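Quality-control log, excerpt.
Job 1 of 2 completed; input and output follow.
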Amino acid sequence: MGNIDVKKTKVLVRGAGDLASGIIWNLAYAGFKVCCTDIEKPSCIRTEVSFSNAIYDGKKVLGNVECVLCDKLVSSIDKCWDEKKVALVIDPDAKILDEIKFDVVVDAILAKKNLGTIIDMADLVIGVGPGFTAKKDCHYVIETMRGHNLAKIYENGSAIVNTGIPGLIASHGADRVMHSPATGVIHNLHKIGDKVNKDDILAVIDMCEGSQCVAPTNEGSHSSPVQGGEKVYASIDGILRGIIRDGYFVEKGLKIADIDPRLTEYDNCFTISDKARSIGAAVVTTILHHYNV
């Protein structure tokens, strides 16, 4: 395909959650010009390791890579790239493609299905996880299922179909993940990195009444439970590895928290996971393969 100049190669990553952030970090560290997109109010639970948090705080730093929230003006994104930073825009439909010609598009939304990515979006399009078929709606697919084939690059075919079962950590799978018991506004009583015991109250949901939600009673305080709300209990003993942002409006059944049963893994709450790093490395490898082999 011909060699590329990494420093001039523009990569658009759709999604900026924790796994997408591993991809973004690898690309930025390798020297690519990276822009990522996300929805207006991302619902990621591993907020400490997700570049999408820049949407709320203006910027997010992971390791030595800084991601900055930009408007959709080309000049804003160019300025970000000139400063060796990752640009993040609120753009779930990837309309930025109408303004900037990207060399590579990576769909890392991880919705378990294709939300609109097509093979003609760029010279190279990569689909991450299930929902994509190589040579049909993208050029390559990257495996996201933990196990022997994690980060495998598919030149043909699709990734393993989503099982809906979280990967095992110290023999714990689905039981380490908590979902919202009600629809409403969440108020967190614990923060990421806290040691928790089974049945501890992690958060309280101020439930909705019709189209209106009950007014918050603690304004996001971590000091005391909200009275009258639906309680969210820790499912196992361990370290709170992820919890959705305080004050977020959650739907009943939404994944809102994740516990790591390994008490020795505190630092993992604040660093990109092995899975995300592996997938990120596979994306970089795929780009280099596509242009240099």
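Job 2 of 2 completed; input and output follow.
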Amino acid sequence: MNLELMVARRMRLGNSVDGSRRASVGTAIAVAGIAVSFIVMLLSIVVMLGFKSEIRAKIIGFDSQIIVFPQASRLTGITSSTIDYTHALENTIKEVMPGAEPTLTIATPVIFKTSRDFQGMVIKGVDCEKGNRFIESNLIKGQMPSTLPDSVNNEVVVPAIMAKRLRIDVGDKIQAFFISQESVKARNMVVAGIYDTHFSDYDKVYAFARRDFLQNVSQLTQRQGTTVTIDNIGNDAAIDDASERLQEAIIRQAALDPEMSFYQVRNIHETGAAYFSWLSLLDTNVIVILILMAIVSGFTLVSSLFIIILERVNMIGILRALGATSFSIVKIFMYVAQRLVLRGLLIGNVVAGIVIFAQTRWHIIPLDPESYYLNYVPVEVNAWIWIGLNLGVMLLAALVLLAPAKAIASIKPTTAIRYE
């Protein structure tokens, strides 16, 4: 152990050399400032990550990562309401995205009516084999439409907003009027379940039923629907890249194969552009918070170290008189500052860890779902970001301590020994 480290470890930060509490106050301020700043920075990051992850999952749960739909006619400008999920289209999708999960989807306008009121929505078909894991995970009552061979296929899952307005519950019968260009078809349906994702912009639009039921109502075959949705692609960059490659592949295939229709490809960043733009603003907010907290913690650390230096000016003079160099004394106080930083980080990590665990487990901090689309503050922990933030705080502390180091080097031995 070198001499500077030994002297730094022997320095008592709890009291000043004359027994007063001034240095201990400075120490407490430094440790508390670092701890609070670290807690705020870490919580800001994990909450931002949680928000982006949860909202992204909700958007994809309703719209899917990539959507293939019919091309509008160049003559009429009218988009066909039907897509043929041919083997050629299926093979093209699998060639471009081998690990993706394409699903034929059907969605059609519908008006639900009871004896008291009515509600217009869009009803989407649920694949009997794959189901809809997102909606199923957000059921608050009942279950998804049954997929058993001998079960009825006219079951529907409705949002809690609609159920409250129409005063219906699981097991109730409801009339559904399906609107097409040719006619309006009426069907009796049974409420199988009620869901609530707290994403009101989507909840008030979509209901869910079996795909084969909607295909029958619309007089479509098992290989016909309104869109083909594709999931299990990867991160945002992979989604953009995959959608571009799929569109190019469809164009090439349509030019070579006369049986292959031309379809449009859009991804979730286009269909949910407003929400992703809102999420991007969170990054700016977090950056501002990180900068402010870094300034606060740096200023607090420098101020506290100046207090400690002033309390030990006599000790500095004695060390200089005994032959210690300015660099050695600076190293002593740098070690002292490291002790303060490590104490603050230790407290900050423990407190932040407890808050994150409690929020993840019990959702102790609520939110207004009407404003934030979530009923609690979400958190998502990234171990690398957590470690990087600790290292960043330590590096920042080393940089801001250059000012106190210059002050120590400028102290003269004769002046320091007589200092009171």
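Post-run check on job 2. The first strand starts at residue 66 and ends at 70.
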